[in-house]
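REVIEWER CHECKLIST
Item 1: Sequence provided? yes
Item 2: Single chain? yes
Item 3: Sequence as submitted:
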Amino acid sequence: MNKYRVSTPLRRTYEGKTYSSRAEMLYAVHLVRLLAAREVLDYVEQPRLWLGVRLNVYVPDCLVGPACGVPFYVDVKGVETQAFRKNKRLWRVYGRLDLHVVQVDGTGKPRTREVVTPEV
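Item 4: Structure as written out by the authors:
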């Protein structure tokens, strides 16, 4: 068993892609539904960003382009690690768009737990 209690690969696979966690997979399913409902224009999974110096690469789960409003990044979290707390601090300084920290509740619905806004 993984120390973060990650599901088996079979339980976190959707349309042939295995996600890092079941929560991440459920969020991807949620995005597909929003795309079909035309609430989201498009999304990009696993974009690579540099926060500050080029040595600190951060890969959020996706970049979402909503039909109305400003694009934003999403990171689906079950457990907040020390490395993620560091990236949140760096995001406030070097981020360009909001970062939504999402948690999937017991019913499988994603909920935004926190929005990290860059300091301009």
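Item 5: Key structural point noted by reviewer: Helices lie at 22-36, 82-94.
Item 6: Recommendation: ____
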